[in-house]
């Protein structure tokens, strides 16, 4: 069961950015943008280079960048496995799709079982909406 079915390596879809430096060092992000049910979404990986690491030279910074890319790629793969999703397509963005349940040979299809989900109280809905609004403000939307 392959979780990544893209025309290019998943790393080819990563976008890289450097954030303003602080007294602690340089900060970077790697963003993986994908489509899910017609909506654009993303995963981000944040990493930093301390002042001491920066003084070690450009080779050290490049080494840290390659390590961040490797770790983020591994994170994306684990996320797909744990969530039972896969990435397909890839132009311009990969599509996130749920894996269909595998059919067992010789078994008849079963009807879906409804699961009762308790209704949220208005207090819970207000709390969730407030958290979403803070998240939107944090990412500048």
Describe this structure in words.
The longest helix has 26 residues, at 58-83. This protein is 34% helix and 30% strand. The chain has 141 residues and is of the alpha+beta class. The strands form two sheets. It has a three-stranded antiparallel β-sheet with strand order 1-2-3. Strands 4-5 form a two-stranded antiparallel sheet. The two termini are 37 Å apart. The mean pLDDT is 84. The chain is flat. It has helices at 51-55, 58-83, 122-138; strands spanning 14-22, 25-36, 39-50, 85-89, 94-98. Strand 4 and strand 5 form a beta hairpin. It has a domain at 10-100.
Low-confidence stretches: none
Biggest beta sheet summary: 3 strands, antiparallel
The SSE string, one letter per element, is EEEHHEEH
Strand content: 25-35%
Overall mean pLDDT: 84
Portion of residues within helices: 25-40%
Radius of gyration (CA) equals 20 Å
Distance between the termini: 37 Å
Shape: flat
Main β-sheet, spatial strand arrangement: 1-2-3
Number of helices: 3
Number of strands: 5
Pairing-aware structural class of the strands and helices? alpha+beta
Which labels suit this protein?
alpha+beta; three-stranded antiparallel β-sheet; 30% strand; 141 residues
Brief synopsis:
This protein has a domain of 91 residues.
List the helices and strands and how they pair.
Layout: E1 14-22, E2 25-36, E3 39-50, H1 51-55, H2 58-83, E4 85-89, E5 94-98, H3 122-138
Antiparallel strand pairs: 1-2, 2-3, 4-5
């Amino acid at each position: 069961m392959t979780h990544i079915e893209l025309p290019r390596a998943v790393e080819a879809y990563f976008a890289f950015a450097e954030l303003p430096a602080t007294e602690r060092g340089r900060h970077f992000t790697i963003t993986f943008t994908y489509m899910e049910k017609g909506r654009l979404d993303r995963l981000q990986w944040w990493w930093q280079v301390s002042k001491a690491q920066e003084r070690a030279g450009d080779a050290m910074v490049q080494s840290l960048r390659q390590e961040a890319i490797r770790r983020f790629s591994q994170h994306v793969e684990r996320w797909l496995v744990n969530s039972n999703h896969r990435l397909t397509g890839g132009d311009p963005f990969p599509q996130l799709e749920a894996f269909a349940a595998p059919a067992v040979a010789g078994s008849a299809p079963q009807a879906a079982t409804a699961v009762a989900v308790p209704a949220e109280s208005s207090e819970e809905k207000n709390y969730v909406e407030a958290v979403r609004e803070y998240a939107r403000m944090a990412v500048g939307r």
